[in-house]
């Protein structure tokens, strides 16, 4: 095995420069015939990650015939965008369709980079004569408890008024706490009120088997609407469980969330196959921490799994996991949950991290295939630090808050590195949107 001092030179020998289109084409060739391609990000607020994912996705759609984009976003918010992209909404433009993203962190999807990609996707869909072949934009997450409850009831008010009455009665179990699900979870976990597990499960079962009156789903559009409502009912069921488990330990709630993402992806595959008459091909956008195989990280020691692991277990020869890294730059992030978005300075990566190895290779923007070459795979099959910046970035406690250990050649099938990156451009900027370099004060020891 190569020593750590030899890693940068080894990386440089296998790097695929991304200065032009040729590099991306070589990367797409590496993806091969995978039907599920998972494109990560090392932060939720980096321009280059969004831009490169969009470029890769466009090639996968245009050249390899991919059918859908599934993202780390709530189902009803993404569905509004999907309706617009497929010409089935009253929204007049992309920005209007994105207004459904009201919950923190809005900038994760309400940014100029996403707008640019979605405009291309709408233009692409407009060239397709068959509506069933248009590309959708689907949400995999489960935070939309209230929004998904309301969507189920709205669907049933049209399709089955008696079923709508039963749904309202069941969902009334949450009372006013549906708008503050963390309070609901706290109260249910510590015995301050009864939980709503039975009610949400009953509603999901009824909607999936059809009410006594029978739900109309005799046409393609009706079948779509039924599927959307069923998925919203699944979100409600899993969100209820998620908010109860979040006070019982990080691993339980994390596993429930990523399992929900995997189940949603599988349900979407089945639905699209029924529409198209063939197995669909789907691109997934989410954070590295969700898409890099958890079995190759120190999180596995805590019993955590993730979406990338679950996809690999189900499709070991038919999936491709692509991670992203950066050495330094700026990022859009908040200092606390529900705090305003800021443009923050990203500290230079730490010695002993995969980011520092990529930086020391001397290449500025490149892809690194992690399949094929035995020497490279073996060299990177050792625990290295890896940085993960979510919607919150705390440079003052960066080592404790944002680093973990992983064996990257087992975690991903390829990496993309952008040495000096910059923040996304939020559509809704706060008064704190400014460049503000920060230095770390937390002790450097683990």
Annotate the secondary structure layout.
Elements: H1 7-14, E1 16-17, H2 21-31, E2 36-39, H3 47-64, E3 68-74, H4 75-85, H5 94-97, H6 112-126, E4 136-141, H7 145-159, H8 161-171, H9 181-189, H10 197-209, H11 220-245, H12 250-276, E5 282-285, H13 288-291, H14 307-314, E6 319-333, E7 342-346, H15 354-360, E8 365-369, H16 374-379, E9 384-387, H17 398-402, E10 403-406, H18 408-411, E11 414-421, E12 435-436
Parallel strand pairs: 2-5, 2-6, 3-4, 3-5, 6-11, 7-12
Antiparallel strand pairs: 1-8, 6-7, 8-11, 9-10
Query: How does the helix and strand content classify structurally?
Result: alpha/beta
* Mean pLDDT across all amino acids: 92
Rounded to the nearest angstrom, the distance between the terminal CA atoms is 25 Å
Specify the CATH homologous superfamily of the largest domain: EreA-like (biosynthetic domain)
Residue fraction in strands: 5-15%
CATH architecture of the largest domain: 3-Layer(aba) Sandwich
Task: Assign an overall shape.
Answer: globular
